[in-house]
Amino acid sequence: MAEDIEIDIDDLERRMKGAMESMRHEFASLRTGRASASMVEPVQVEAYGQMTPINQLGTVNVPEPRMVTINIWDKAMVGKAEKALRESGLGINPQTNGTIIMLPIPELNEERRKELTKVAAQYAESARVAIRNVRRDGMDQVKKAKADGMSEDDQKFWETAVQELTDRMIANVDAALEAKQAEIMQV
């Protein structure tokens, strides 16, 4: 029985990759001075009696590197969508032309770039914490298996495997953070 005790390393890796994906999604919402359709994803509009994501009220396009346009399908929603964009905290002043809302992306100043790098670092730290929590779960599984009769050699093998996976994922987070910070600081 003690021979077939195994730790589900694939599950641990899947959970760690989930933390990485969450961080990448948060990185995508950071404004870097370049237009991106994902920057308006968090914006919610009071539409038809409920809060609705703005990308479900119209087509989001990036026609130029410094411009996002949203073509609102229902003309009655244009004013509400514009108001939601103004109040969203994106720091962008929307301009309306019929059913099209244009979002010109201003150049970021040095101070704002530094603030954004700090926000990116916070997102990365959250991902590291999530990865370490998954590592702790993996180590707890190893300890439980040891109590269930796993040999010392197997215990060392699984602890090493979990630690190596954690180190690799943390290195991926650090690399993604470094790339995002370089992108933010690029003028």
From TrEMBL:
The primary location reported for this protein is: cytoplasm
Q: Where is the signal peptide?
A: none
Query: Where is this chain's protein located in or outside the cell?
Result: Cytoplasm
> What sequence ranges are listed for the domain Ribosome recycling factor?
24-185
Q: Which UniProt keywords apply?
A: Cytoplasm, Protein biosynthesis
- Stretches of the chain forming a coiled coil according to its record: none
Q: Which domain of life is it from?
A: Bacteria
UniProt cross-references to SUPFAM superfamilies, sorted A to Z? Ribosome recycling factor, RRF
Gene3D superfamilies per the UniProt record, alphabetical: 3.30.1360.40, Ribosome-recycling factor
One Pfam family, please name it.
RRF
Where does the sequence pass through the membrane?
none
Q: Which InterPro entries match?
A: Ribosome_recyc_fac (IPR002661), Ribosome_recyc_fac_dom (IPR023584), RRF_sf (IPR036191)
Q: Which family does it belong to?
A: Belongs to the RRF family.
* Job description of the protein: Responsible for the release of ribosomes from messenger RNA at the termination of protein biosynthesis. May increase the efficiency of translation by recycling ribosomes from one round of translation to another.
Q: What is this protein called?
A: Ribosome-recycling factor
